[in-house]
């Protein structure tokens, strides 16, 4: 069990070691100092009630790295009248959780003091570890503040979610990052005016941060160190680029971002934005995503979003999947890009997707019925006695290769599942399909 942000002996509560990283030194001390997340910081927001009214509630803070989850916990640790305890899911188990709960019960019984328990990376807790919190949270022996970068509806057990308020934190926007940088440059807790930042360097920092406040401050501190070492008073673009060699791609192959970027790739293909699609492909490739996962998504998109508007799209996607398996990475990104360009620029139709979806829905609704007698298997002894196959007409005996005949069950006669568009290759298919259906249903 560890108290959050323990202060060295003789140091005022909330004071920060001047040798601490810049991101730690600049951590807000009140909700009014928090940058961003304005959707969560209104006058009657749950966070303000927890901090200002000391209300007994439990929270799950969900958002990407650097959006302020630990910062909010720090603010609560400074403002609340409760005992504040931190556990990390990386190095804590059921034993540690039970020790915290036992201590919280003693505080409540003998000192009438409640406990706030902050658990970082709660998604790393097993189901058993999360379940061990339930009774203490429900009985309000502890107010839980759980932080996670994973979607809590996938990574946190339902009973714990039902006892907590889920607050989604958003990446900081560019203006928020600029505010953080300006504050860090001038604050006596930060760089205290030791250096300035050129406009070009500031915009590079904003791009590098990608909405991550911690990353912005860490990069600023690195640039400031490089400028001071060179005897300069300004962090210019060249100095900053040297100090921050490359912006890391914000992408967690095991986390929620994995699904967000994959979704953005497919939606960009569906929307025919080839440039955006290539961007998301590049993000996945650079982050080390399994190329087989990317290839599978492209094969699905070829049928789901393009279908018969361009029948060759599926061939290209399957060929890309085979090529990646054959040549491996990094060269495998070429056939993947080939497929992305083909799929994004192809005419689009979801007629195949709609057709199979409606077909499945009817089957699940009970619209099936017996197979028409003429279509039933007639290759076994006694089939003719049952009337199987007797009325079947062989299409190849007709000059056109098609004859009027009932193929669907009675309950589905006349139902059209496949409705082709006029886009791409589906235009001619639509014209032919109208003629086919007219012949098949003649006389009905």
Automatic annotation (TrEMBL):
<dbReference type="GO" id="GO:0006261">
    <property type="term" value="P:DNA-templated DNA replication"/>
</dbReference>
<dbReference type="GO" id="GO:0000731">
    <property type="term" value="P:DNA synthesis involved in DNA repair"/>
</dbReference>
<comment type="similarity">
    <text>Belongs to the AAA ATPase family. RarA/MGS1/WRNIP1 subfamily.</text>
</comment>
<dbReference type="GO" id="GO:0003677">
    <property type="term" value="F:DNA binding"/>
</dbReference>
<dbReference type="Pfam" id="PF16193">
    <property type="entry name" value="AAA_assoc_2"/>
</dbReference>
<feature type="domain" description="AAA+ ATPase">
    <location>
        <begin position="55"/>
        <end position="172"/>
    </location>
</feature>
<dbReference type="InterPro" id="IPR008921">
    <property type="entry name" value="DNA_pol3_clamp-load_cplx_C"/>
</dbReference>
<dbReference type="InterPro" id="IPR003959">
    <property type="entry name" value="ATPase_AAA_core"/>
</dbReference>
<feature type="region of interest" description="Disordered">
    <location>
        <begin position="1"/>
        <end position="21"/>
    </location>
</feature>
<dbReference type="InterPro" id="IPR021886">
    <property type="entry name" value="MgsA_C"/>
</dbReference>
<dbReference type="GO" id="GO:0005524">
    <property type="term" value="F:ATP binding"/>
</dbReference>
<dbReference type="GO" id="GO:0008047">
    <property type="term" value="F:enzyme activator activity"/>
</dbReference>
<dbReference type="InterPro" id="IPR032423">
    <property type="entry name" value="AAA_assoc_2"/>
</dbReference>
<dbReference type="GO" id="GO:0016887">
    <property type="term" value="F:ATP hydrolysis activity"/>
</dbReference>
<keyword id="KW-0067">ATP-binding</keyword>
<dbReference type="InterPro" id="IPR051314">
    <property type="entry name" value="AAA_ATPase_RarA/MGS1/WRNIP1"/>
</dbReference>
<dbReference type="InterPro" id="IPR027417">
    <property type="entry name" value="P-loop_NTPase"/>
</dbReference>
<dbReference type="Pfam" id="PF00004">
    <property type="entry name" value="AAA"/>
</dbReference>
<dbReference type="InterPro" id="IPR003593">
    <property type="entry name" value="AAA+_ATPase"/>
</dbReference>
<protein>
    <submittedName>
        <fullName>Recombination protein MgsA</fullName>
    </submittedName>
</protein>
<keyword id="KW-0547">Nucleotide-binding</keyword>
<dbReference type="GO" id="GO:0017116">
    <property type="term" value="F:single-stranded DNA helicase activity"/>
</dbReference>
<dbReference type="Pfam" id="PF12002">
    <property type="entry name" value="MgsA_C"/>
</dbReference>
């Amino acid at each position: 069990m560890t108290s959050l942000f323990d202060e060295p002996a003789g140091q005022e509560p909330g004071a920060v070691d001047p040798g601490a990283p810049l991101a730690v030194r600049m951590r807000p001390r009140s909700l009014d100092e928090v940058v961003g997340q304005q959707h969560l910081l209104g006058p009657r927001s749950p966070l303000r009630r927890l901090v200002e009214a000391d209300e007994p509630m439990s929270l799950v803070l969900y958002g990407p790295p650097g959006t302020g989850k630990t910062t909010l916990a720090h603010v609560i640790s400074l403002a609340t009248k409760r005992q504040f305890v931190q556990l990390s899911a990386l190095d804590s188990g059921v034993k540690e959780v039970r020790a915290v709960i036992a201590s919280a019960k003693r505080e409540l019984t003998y000192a009438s003091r409640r406990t706030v328990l902050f658990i970082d990376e709660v998604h790393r807790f097993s189901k058993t570890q999360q379940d061990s919190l339930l009774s203490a949270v429900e009985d309000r022996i502890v107010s839980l503040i759980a932080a996670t970068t994973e979607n809590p509806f996938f990574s946190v057990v339902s009973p714990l979610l039902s006892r907590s308020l889920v607050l989604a934190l958003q990446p900081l926007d560019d203006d928020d990052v600029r505010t953080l940088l300006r504050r860090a440059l001038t604050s006596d807790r930060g760089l205290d005016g030791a250096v300035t930042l050129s406009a070009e360097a500031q915009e590079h920092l904003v791009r590098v941060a990608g909405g991550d406040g911690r990353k912005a401050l860490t990069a600023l501190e690195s640039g400031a160190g490089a400028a001071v070492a060179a005897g300069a008073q300004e962090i210019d673009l060249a100095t900053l680029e040297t100090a921050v060699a490359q912006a890391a791609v914000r992408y967690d192959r095991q986390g929620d971002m994995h699904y967000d970027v994959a979704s953005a790739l497919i939606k960009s293909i569906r929307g025919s934005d080839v440039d955006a699609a290539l961007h998301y492909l590049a993000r996945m490739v650079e982050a080390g995503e399994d190329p087989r996962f990317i290839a599978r998504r492209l094969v699905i998109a070829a049928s789901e979003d393009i279908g018969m508007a361009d029948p060759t799209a599926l061939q290209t996607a399957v060929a890309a999947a085979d090529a990646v398996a054959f040549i491996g990475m990094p060269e495998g990104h070429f056939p993947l890009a080939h497929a992305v360009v083909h799929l994004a620029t192809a005419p689009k139709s979801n007629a195949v997707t709609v057709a199979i979806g409606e077909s499945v829905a009817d089957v699940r609704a009970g619209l099936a019925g017996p197979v028409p007698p003429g279509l039933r298997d007639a290759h076994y002894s006694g089939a003719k006695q049952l009337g199987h196959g007797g009325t079947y007409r062989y299409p190849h005996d007709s000059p056109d290769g098609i004859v009027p005949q009932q193929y669907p069950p009675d309950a589905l006669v006349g139902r059209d599942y496949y409705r082709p568009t006029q886009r791409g290759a589906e235009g001619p298919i639509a014209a032919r399909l109208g003629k086919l259906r007219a012949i098949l249903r003649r006389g009905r």
